[in-house]
Structures are given as structure tokens and as C-alpha cells.
């Protein structure tokens, strides 16, 4: 803990990683005030925030980061010290169907936030780079670097080469954040993380989709040949990394965050299938028989993998958790939270805030 009192804006805090980050922050920095701004799109779920929503130093606002008037009012009212921007359209498949909404939120929305920071924070050429009186922290993705061949790793110096509308929009946002550092001296940090997994992840992403379908005995779709590789990181480790980077990272810099858990999709789905057989006392191979190879994702990146030496060597962070244990814990969470699943699958989770916050 720092002992300093800060007012923190976390955007996208009703989503998967955002809700974990708000929880992490309230637990570790109880002297801070956290404002969670979330548009409550299909990916936002107030059930993800239930365990901390009544805390006195937590405040939820429903709204979009693209709404410049709202952002202005919030900056005026709350005088934010630090901003963590997690609000995003985050799913690659959806970006192929509807690229414009990704540009709106990920590029335009990020720029609206950056403009508010420039307006409300007094920035000088003599900016004290270590003090971090203010901070704009952009949570980004390793997908901005495109696809790797075997044996190669992304580093902070890798060339940007996004292949999907999602990753292109996140790349655009990263460039804007860097441009605001160089042009306006805005104190910024960017981290680009690999694939996260854990509780509260919306079941459109590979791991929760596989777990839910497996529990329900539905098909487990594998795109293409299933040999694409991802590097998996448990979500609370990502939050820990964000915390370390925010406090110890050098302003203007980028840090890569990875899990050192590279799996081919097909092997990962087989592993989950075995774990589900075990947990549900099914005969070995029962769940794997649900695997179905389906049409590949257009522009599908073959492999992502992170060289995390910068964050390890400069900030002393490396992921510590055992992947298989955390995967089992994640499966247990979905098995023991049937109401969350039921509400998400039926769409009931949206009814609560349609009633309470209007029809968004
Ligand atoms: P998510 O889709 O679960 O959550 C996104 C949240 O943002 C939702 O609550 C949604 O309602 C909100 N949101 C969307 N548009 C908004 C807008 N215009 N204004 C305000 N709120 C809005 O996403 P996630 O997986 O938790 O990802 C969070 C961030 O982390 C994203 O920026 C994503 O690019 C990045 N990231 C994700 C991963 C991953 O594996 N999930 C890995 C690296 C980086
Ligand atoms: O690398 C970080 C990124 O990870 C984040 O920036 C994104 O927000 C997040 O969605 C994730 O992107 P991916 O495209 O890697 O995740 P997804 O879970 O959609 O897919 C993981 C891999 O599994 C990918 O190779 C596609 C494949 N897949 C996915 C689904 C949903 C399947 O084979 N079948 C599926 O049904």
C-alpha cells in the first residue's frame, strides 16, 4: 500500500478483467476511491461486481467512454488522479461482424478519455516522470503484434502488425496513448497482455465457452485445425501485474505481460475435457467426444507468445500460479455458480440493469 489517497477511474469495471481489477484495487488500496464507468454492453454484468458494490469507497456509473460530455462531468466531479482504461469491445469474432463499434469504443472512446486527462491535469514540460501524481494506464493486448512463427516471441520492440479489426482498434488506441505522451506530456503507461482466463469471463471466449458447453454436453467448437497457440494467464495475475506496472513502471513505457503457459487450442480443450470428466464422474473420453472442428476464424493468428523479460528484470514481476490448478479452480467456479451462468445464458443478467439503468 502507498498510504496515499487517490481517486481512481476504472473503465470497463463490470466486464471480466475490469471487475477483477476493481476488486483487487479495493482490497489492496482501501484508502482509495474507485469509480467504475461501464456502458453495460452485453459484456458488462453487474453480478460481477456484487461482492464489492456496497463499499463506501466504490461508485458505479453507467455510461460510455465515447460520451465526451459525461466524461467531462465525471472528471469535474471526481478529480481523478489515475485512470485505468479497460473499457473495450474485446471479442475478435464480433469485430469481424461489426468493426465500427470496435473503432468507436476502442479508438474514439480512448481518445475522449485522453482529451479529458489533458484538459484536467496540469501537464508541463518539466513533468516529474517518477512522481505519478497523475496516470493514464491503457490496458492493451499482445494481439497488436500480429502472429508469430514457432520459436519467436513478442517483445516491447516488436512491430505492430494487427490482423483483426479488434487488434487494429487496440493498436490504434496504443498509438494514440503514446502520441499523447509525446505531444502533451501526458503521463501514460501501456501494458500488452496475453490471453486471460478465470471466473466471470463471458462465455464467448474459448475457455469459458468450452467449460459451459462441456458441462451442458454441447459441442466444443475448434476453429480450423486447432493448432493455433495462445499463452494463458490467470486473471488475478494480470491484475497483480497492472498494479506493479502502475506503481513501478516508467512513464511512457510499454510492458508485456504473459503467463508462460503456451497451449495449442486443441490440447487445451482436451485438458479441460479431461478435467470435466473427472469432476463430473464421466467416463474418460466422454467430454472430448464433443469436440467438433468448425470453419476457421478469418485472419486467424496462429501463435502468440510473450518474452516477459522486461517486466521481470525491471519491475520484478513474474507470474507465480500453477496453470492447471488455476484452470481447475476456474472450472470449479463455473460449476458452483449456476445462477451466474443461467442469467448470462438466458440474458436475464441484462434485465436487472434495464430495469435499474434504462434500456442500453
Ligand atoms: P470484456 O468484454 O469482458 O469487458 C469489457 C467491458 O467494457 C464490459 O463491461 C463492457 O460493458 C465495457 N464497455 C464496452 N464498451 C464500453 C464503452 N464504450 N464505454 C464504457 N464501457 C464499455 O473485456 P475483458 O476481457 O475484460 O478485457 C478488458 C480489457 O483488457 C480490454 O481493453 C481488452 O482489450 C484487454 N485485454 C483482454 C484480454 C483477455 O484475454 N480478455 C487480454 C489482454 C488485454
Ligand atoms: O491475446 C489477448 C486476447 O485474447 C485479448 O486481447 C482478447 O480480448 C481476447 O478475446 C483473447 O483473444 P483470442 O481471440 O485469442 O481469444 P478467444 O477466446 O476468442 O480464442 C482463443 C483461441 O481459441 C483462438 O485461437 C480462437 C480459438 N477458438 C475460440 C473460440 C471462441 C476456437 O477454436 N473455438 C472457439 O469457439
The main sheet comes to: 7 strands, parallel
Helical fraction: 40-55%
In total, the number of strands is 12
H/E series, N to C? EHEEHEHHEHEEHEEHEEHEHHHH
Q: For the record, what is the CATH homologous superfamily label of the domain at 7-197 and 233-259 and 303-320 and 349-357?
A: NAD(P)-binding Rossmann-like Domain
Strand arrangement, major sheet: 3-2-1-4-5-6-10
CATH fold assignment of the domain at 7-197 and 233-259 and 303-320 and 349-357: Rossmann fold
Top-tier CATH class of the domain at 7-197 and 233-259 and 303-320 and 349-357: Alpha Beta
Q: Which word captures the global form?
A: globular
Tally of separate helices: 12
Report Rg: 20 Å
**CATH architecture field of the domain at 7-197 and 233-259 and 303-320 and 349-357:** 3-Layer(aba) Sandwich
Mean pLDDT comes to 95
CA(first)-CA(last) distance: 37 Å
Note the beta-strand portion.
15-25%
The structure class reads: alpha/beta
Low-confidence stretches: none
Ligand kinds: nicotinamide-adenine-dinucleotide, 2'deoxy-thymidine-5'-diphospho-alpha-D-glucose
Structure characterization notes:
- With 360 residues, the protein is of the alpha/beta class.
- It has a domain at 7-197 and 233-259 and 303-320 and 349-357: NAD(P)-binding Rossmann-like Domain (Rossmann fold, 3-Layer(aba) Sandwich).
- The protein contains 12 helices and 12 strands.
- The chain has helices spanning 16-28, 68-78, 92-97, 99-120, 165-184, 206-216, 235-248, 265-279, 309-315, 323-336, 338-346, 348-357; strands spanning 7-11, 33-38, 58-62, 82-85, 135-141, 188-193, 195-197, 220-223, 229-234, 254-257, 262-264, 291-294.
- A 7-stranded parallel sheet has the order 3-2-1-4-5-6-10, with helices on both faces. Strands 7-9-11 form a 3-stranded mixed sheet. A two-stranded parallel ribbon has the order 8-12.
- The chain is globular, with a radius of gyration of 20 Å.
- The structure holds nicotinamide-adenine-dinucleotide and 2'deoxy-thymidine-5'-diphospho-alpha-D-glucose.
- 2'deoxy-thymidine-5'-diphospho-alpha-D-glucose binds at residues 90-92, 141-143, 194-195, 205-206, 209, 221-223, 228, 230, 265, 297, 304.
Amino acid at each position: 500500500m502507498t498510504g496515499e489517497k487517490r481517486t481512481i477511474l476504472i473503465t470497463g469495471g463490470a466486464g471480466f478483467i475490469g471487475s477483477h481489477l476493481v476488486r483487487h484495487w479495493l482490497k489492496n488500496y482501501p484508502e482509495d476511491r474507485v469509480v467504475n464507468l461501464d456502458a453495460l454492453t452485453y459484456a458488462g454484468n453487474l453480478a460481477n461486481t456484487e461482492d464489492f458494490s456496497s463499499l463506501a469507497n466504490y461508485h458505479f456509473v453507467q455510461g460510455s467512454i465515447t460520451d465526451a460530455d459525461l466524461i467531462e462531468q465525471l472528471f469535474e466531479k471526481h478529480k481523478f488522479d489515475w485512470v485505468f482504461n479497460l473499457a473495450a469491445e474485446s471479442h475478435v469474432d464480433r469485430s469481424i461482424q461489426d468493426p465500427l463499434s470496435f473503432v468507436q469504443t476502442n479508438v474514439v472512446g480512448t481518445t475522449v478519455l485522453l482529451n479529458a486527462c489533458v484538459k484536467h491535469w496540469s501537464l508541463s514540460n518539466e513533468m516529474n516522470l517518477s512522481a505519478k501524481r497523475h496516470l493514464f494506464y491503457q490496458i492493451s493486448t499482445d494481439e497488436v503484434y500480429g502472429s508469430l512463427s514457432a520459436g519467436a516471441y513478442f517483445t516491447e520492440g516488436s512491430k505492430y502488425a494487427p490482423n483483426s479489426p479488434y487488434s487494429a482498434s487496440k493498436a490504434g488506441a496504443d498509438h494514440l496513448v503514446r502520441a499523447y505522451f509525446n505531444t502533451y506530456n501526458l503521463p501514460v503507461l501501456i501494458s500488452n497482455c496475453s490471453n486471460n482466463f478465470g471466473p466471470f469471463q463471458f462465455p464467448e471466449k474459448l475457455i469459458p465457452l468450452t467449460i459451459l458447453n462441456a458441462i451442458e454436453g454441447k459441442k466444443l467448437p475448434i476453429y480450423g485445425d486447432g493448432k493455433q497457440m495462445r499463452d494463458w494467464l490467470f486473471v488475478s495475475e494480470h491484475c497483480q501485474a497492472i498494479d506493479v506496472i502502475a506503481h513501478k513502471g516508467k512513464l511512457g513505457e510499454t510492458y508485456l505481460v504473459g503467463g508462460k503457459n503456451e497451449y495449442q487450442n486443441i490440447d487445451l480443450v482436451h485438458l479441460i475435457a479431461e478435467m470435466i470428466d473427472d469432476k463430473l464422474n464421466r467416463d474418460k473420453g466422454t467430454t472430448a467426444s464433443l469436440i467438433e472442428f468448425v470453419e476457421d476464424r478469418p485472419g486467424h493468428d496462429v501463435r502468440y507468445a510473450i518474452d516477459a523479460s522486461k517486466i521481470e528484470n525491471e519491475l520484478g514481476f513474474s507470474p507465480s500460479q500453477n496453470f492447471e490448478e488455476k484452470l481447475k479452480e476456474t472450472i470449479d467456479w463455473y460449476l458452483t455458480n449456476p445462477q451466474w451462468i443461467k442469467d448470462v445464458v438466458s440474458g436475464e443478467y441484462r434485465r436487472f440493469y434495464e430495469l435499474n439503468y434504462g434500456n442500453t
